[in-house]
From TrEMBL:
GO terms for cellular component: plasma membrane. InterPro entries: GPCR_Rhodpsn, GPCR_Rhodpsn_7TM, Olfact_rcpt, Olfactory_GPCR. This is Olfactory receptor. Signal peptide: none annotated. The keyword Transmembrane helix applies. The chain crosses the membrane at residues 26-51, 57-79, 91-109, 142-164, 176-194, 200-226, 238-260, 272-292. The keyword Membrane applies. It comes from the Eukaryota. Keywords: Cell membrane, G-protein coupled receptor, Membrane, Olfaction, Receptor, Sensory transduction, Transducer, Transmembrane, Transmembrane helix. Gene3D superfamilies: Rhodopsin 7-helix transmembrane proteins (1.20.1070.10). PROSITE patterns: G_PROTEIN_RECEP_F1_1 (PS00237), G_PROTEIN_RECEP_F1_2 (PS50262). Belongs to the G-protein coupled receptor 1 family.
């Protein structure tokens, strides 16, 4: 059966998260609780940073941006996933899929340069503390944050425009629980050569381009910490960057696994598990990581939630 060149599907069918229909209710409750934790935890971090003057520093300014990214990333995927968990036919409209794809990729791409900027902030604080106020003043931090968001938004927008120029004339089954560029491109009946080239360039320039300066920053940080004579000094210096280092490790470990895992029969299931990690688990952990040993954040949260224990 021949399809018109301009035929477009009006909706996509999602494969879903798990093939356990009897456990859908349990998964719904679990992921709903995690989603609430992501939104509430990261919102709490943002409000705490805004209302507590001691947190008005470059490091916490960028942490607030990271919290906002986590909310956007999770909110682009989880509400629709929860809706589909309770439905037999798991669908998403073409426009809804494109919107989800744009918000998700914008947030994920934005996080790459943001983590690099946060690594540079820790590098300046530990390796050049006397110049920190000058190098990380407001006039520099705000343009850095704007640039980070611009990179993610523009990169995602360009790739979305290229997707919109493709023809989708069937099939319409997305073998995932949300739309990603590879799964969407696989359904196109047009040539996706340009799309693949652009995705490859984005991966090289954005992923590797931000991974290298992040690695370099922490290499200099580790060298500087090792040169400190006192154990208390080393501990104090490491505590200022340990939270961010853990976040970077979580983010890049899932990213590297996604792109470097070998092809296998369980590839789709592995992809789903990794997707759960970077869209739900990591955004849930980030507020805990930054709040766990930080006295100033705890003080700010007590202002918002007076009933919390000391």
């Amino acid at each position: 059966m021949e399809h018109s060149k301009h035929t477009r599907v009006t909706e996509f069918i999602m494969q879903g998260l798990f093939d356990h229909p009897h456990h859908q209710g349990l998964f719904f409750v679990l992921f709903l609780c995690l989603y609430i934790a992501v939104v509430m935890g990261n919102s709490l971090i943002i409000v705490a940073i805004i209302i507590h003057p001691p947190l008005h520093t470059p490091m916490y300014f960028f942490i607030a941006n990271l919290a906002l990214i986590d909310i956007l990333c999770t909110s682009s995927v989880v509400p629709k996933m929860l809706e589909n968990l309770m439905q037999e036919k798991k669908t998403i409209s073409f426009g809804g899929c494109i919107t989800q794809l744009f918000v998700l990729t914008s947030s994920l791409v934005t996080e790459l340069p943001l983590l690099a900027v946060m690594s540079y902030d820790r590098y300046v604080a530990i390796c050049h503390p006397l110049h920190y106020v000058k190098l990380m003043r407001k006039e520099i931090c705000i343009p850095l944050a704007v640039s980070v968001w611009a990179v993610g938004t523009i990169s995602s927008f360009i790739n979305i425009l290229l997707v919109l120029h493709l023809d989708f004339c069937g099939p319409n089954l997305i073998q995932h629980f949300f739309g990603e560029f590879p799964t969407i491109l696989a359904l196109s009946c047009s040539s996706i050569y340009v799309n693949e080239i652009m995705m490859f360039m984005a991966y090289i320039f954005l992923a590797m381009g931000n991974f290298l300066p992040t690695t370099m920053s922490y290499s200099f940080i580790i060298i500087t910490i090792l040169k400190i004579q006192s154990s208390k000094g080393k501990q104090r210096a490491f505590s200022t960057c340990s939270s961010h280092l853990l976040v970077v490790t979580l983010y890049y470990s899932t990213t590297i696994y996604t792109y470097m895992q070998p092809t296998s029969s369980n590839l789709q299931d592995n992809d789903k598990m990794v997707a759960i990690m970077y869209t739900l688990v990591t955004p849930t952990l980030n507020p805990v990581i930054y709040n766990l040993r930080n006295k100033e954040v705890k003080v700010a949260i007590r202002k918002i939630l007076p009933f919390t224990t000391k």
